[in-house]
Write a structure and sequence with these properties.
By secondary structure, this protein is α/β, with parallel strands linked by helices. It folds into three domains: about 160 residues, FAD/NAD(P)-binding domain; about 90 residues, no CATH class; about 100 residues, Polyamine Oxidase, Chain A, domain 2, CATH 3.90.660. It has twelve helices and 18 strands. The longest helix is centred in the last third of the chain and has 20 residues. The chain is globular and about 65 Å long. The protein starts with a strand and ends with a helix. The mean pLDDT is about 95.
C-alpha cells in the first residue's frame, strides 16, 4: 500500500511532497511526463532554453520568500521591473493600457479617455454588483477602453464573448486606475508600475525549471512516466498505464479537474457527470523560437487586442533571462485554442507569419523552433463555472480526495499560489495524521 499518492508532478504536487518529507511523511508523486514540473518546465535545444509560455515569479508573501530561501534558490532569482506593452491598431503603448493610452492613435486615445471620464462621472446604478464581465468593464473602464482593448483581447484569449464571462476571476489581475492616472497616461506622463506583476523574479540562468527541479530533488518518491489511467474511489486504488495498481490511504490530485473526473471508474452520480460537462477552458499553442540577432523589441512581453492578429501575446524571454546564446534572442508566440484542439500545424504557421508581418520576427534568422500545446491553459470563467466546480469539489471531498492547484481547483492563479497550495496540502495531511 502507498500511504499518500499525489497525481500530478507540477509545482503544487512537488511542493506538497517536499513539505511532507520534511515531516517524515513519504508521498509518491505520479507524473506522466518524462520530467517533473507540469507546465512549469523548460526545454533546451540548440543552446536555447524555452519555457512553456511565460512563467515568471511574482512574490507577495513572506512565507514564499522563506520557502525559496530554504530551497537555496532565492538568490538565483533576478529581480526585474516589468516592461510590457499593448498593441492596438498597429500602435504600441505601455501596459497596462488603462493608464498608458498616450501611444495610441489620437482617435482611439480620445475614445478611451472620454469613456473612462463618463463612467467615472456617471456610474451606473447597481454596477458595483455587475454579473458579467461586460458590465464590469464598462463600469470600471468605460466604453472606449472596453471596445478597443478589454472586449477584443479577452474574447480572443478566452474564446468567449464578454457577456458569457463572470467576474470572479478579475480581482487583483485587472487593476482599476483613478482619474488622475488615466489623464496622466493619456498625456504620456511618467507613473509607477501597477498591478500584481509590476515586479517579477526569474532564474539567472537555466529557465524556470530551476524551481521544480530543485523541489523534485528533495522528494524521494517522484515517478516520471507514470500515467494514471483509472481511479477506483471505492477501493482506494489507482491504476497506471504500465499495469500497476496502487492502493492509497490519502489521494491528492493536482491534475486538471475534468481530467480527474474522466479517470474515475464508473458509475459516478449524474450530477457529477453534468458538472464535468459544464466546465469550459482554452488551450494555448506556444511557438517558441530561437533567433539570430538582437530582439526586435525591449519589452518582456506584448499584448495584441486586434482580432485579425492570431496571437494574443508575444514574449521575448531573453530580455529577462540568459536563455539564448550570445548574439541571439528567443521569441514566445501564444495563440488561444479551443480546449482539446490538436491539429495546430497551420495555426503555428499563421502565427509565425503574423509575427513577421508585425515586425517582431525575422523568419530567415530562425535557428530553433519548438511547438507545444498546453491544454488546459486557461479556465473559462463563465456563469456555469462556480456551480459546476462546487458540485465536483464537494463530491471529491466526500470521497476523501484532496484537490489542489490552479487546474485541479479550476481557478486562475500564479506560481506563488501553486507553492502556497502545495504547502496547504502538506499542512492538512500532517494535521490529519497527527489527529
Amino acid at each position: 500500500m502507498s500511504g499518500i499518492l499525489i497525481v500530478g508532478g507540477g509545482l503544487t504536487g512537488l511542493v506538497a511532497a517536499e513539505r511532507l518529507a520534511r515531516h517524515g511523511v513519504e508521498a509518491v508523486v505520479l507524473e506522466r511526463e518524462a520530467r517533473p514540473g507540469g507546465a512549469c518546465r523548460s526545454f533546451e535545444e540548440g543552446g536555447f532554453t524555452f519555457d512553456l509560455t511565460g512563467h515568471l515569479l511574482h512574490v507577495q508573501q513572506k512565507q514564499t520568500v522563506a520557502y525559496l530561501e530554504e530551497l537555496g534558490v532565492w538568490d538565483a532569482l533576478e529581480v526585474h521591473e516589468r516592461r510590457a506593452a499593448v498593441v492596438i491598431g498597429g500602435r504600441t503603448t505601455p501596459y497596462p493600457v488603462q493608464i498608458n493610452t498616450a501611444g495610441l492613435a489620437p482617435e482611439v486615445r480620445r475614445d478611451c479617455l472620454l469613456g473612462f471620464i463618463r463612467s467615472w462621472c456617471d456610474p451606473q446604478e447597481g454596477a458595483g454588483s455587475a454579473g458579467t464581465f461586460r458590465e464590469w468593464v464598462l463600469d470600471r473602464f468605460g466604453e472606449g477602453l472596453a471596445r478597443h482593448f478589454f472586449f477584443p483581447y479577452n474574447t480572443k484569449l478566452f474564446r468567449a464573448a464578454p457577456e458569457e464571462l463572470g467576474v470572479d476571476w478579475v480581482g487583483r489581475y485587472v487593476p482599476k486606475p483613478d482619474l488622475e492616472e488615466v489623464i496622466d497616461g493619456a498625456l504620456g506622463l511618467e507613473h509607477r508600475g501597477v498591478g500584481y506583476n509590476a515586479v517579477f523574479r526569474y532564474p539567472t540562468r537555466g529557465g524556470i525549471r530551476l524551481l521544480p527541479d530543485t523541489v523534485a530533488s528533495r522528494v524521494p518518491g517522484v515517478e516520471t512516466g507514470a500515467e494514471v489511467t483509472g481511479i477506483d474511489l471505492k477501493h482506494r486504488r489507482v491504476t497506471l498505464q504500465d499495469g500497476r495498481s496502487l492502493v492509497y490511504e490519502h489521494l491528492v490530485s493536482t491534475i486538471s479537474l475534468p481530467a480527474l473526473i474522466d479517470l474515475l471508474e464508473r458509475p459516478v452520480p449524474e450530477a457529477v457527470t453534468a458538472a464535468r460537462r459544464a466546465l469550459r477552458w482554452v488551450g494555448v499553442l506556444n511557438v517558441a523560437l530561437g533567433v539570430e540577432g538582437a530582439a526586435p523589441a525591449d519589452q518582456h512581453w506584448v499584448y495584441f487586442a486586434d482580432p485579425e492578429i492570431p496571437f494574443y501575446r508575444i514574449g521575448f524571454p531573453s530580455n529577462h533571462g540568459r536563455v539564448a546564446p550570445e548574439g541571439c534572442h528567443t521569441v514566445s508566440i501564444e495563440v488561444s485554442l479551443a480546449g482539446g484542439a490538436r491539429d495546430v500545424d497551420d495555426v503555428a504557421v499563421q502565427a509565425e507569419s503574423a509575427a513577421a508581418a508585425a515586425g517582431l520576427l525575422d523568419q530567415g534568422k530562425i535557428r530553433v523552433r519548438m511547438v507545444h500545446v498546453i491544454d488546459p491553459a486557461y479556465v473559462v470563467f463563465d456563469h456555469h463555472r462556480r456551480k459546476a466546480v462546487d458540485v465536483l469539489l464537494r463530491f471529491l471531498g466526500e470521497q476523501g480526495v484532496i484537490v489542489a492547484g490552479r487546474w485541479a481547483e479550476w481557478k486562475y492563479s500564479a506560481m506563488e499560489d501553486a507553492i502556497l497550495d502545495g504547502m496547504g496540502v502538506a499542512q492538512r495531511i500532517v494535521g490529519d495524521l497527527s489527529a
